[in-house]
Amino acid sequence: MKKVIVSMCTAFAFSIGLAAIPVSAVEKQAPMQEREIQLTAGQKEELKQIHKNLLEEKKKLIRKYVEFEMITEETGDRIIKRYEDHYKMVEQNGFLMPHHHFHNKRWKQK
After folding, report:
1. Which residue, 47, 62, 63, 90, is the most exposed by fewest CB within 10 angstroms?
2. What pTM, to 2 d.p., does this model score?
3. 3-state helix, strand, coil in the chain (%, to 5)
4. Which residues fall within 8 angstroms of residue 37, CB to CB, at 6 or more apart?
């Protein structure tokens, strides 16, 4: 019985000690500065090709799912349309990473 109580007290003390470590690490980090990102035409073209290749591979995958009757043709068409819409959005944004609203503004497009 004594070993059980000592073990529980040790585990409790250990868990409190570990819980405090991440909190102190977060407080010491310096805030990130805003950065302006400007891609060259070559960089944009390279990203465009990569995104196009990804889009084509995703389409092939969805078509295989339809072929193997894992999903219906209507569902496959809907997924492919969503992928195409996403590609158009990425292209309109200049192939920059999307800004997440819950984060601080760290990226600015010139």
Report:
1. 63
2. 0.58
3. 65, 5, 30
4. 96, 107, 108, 109, 110
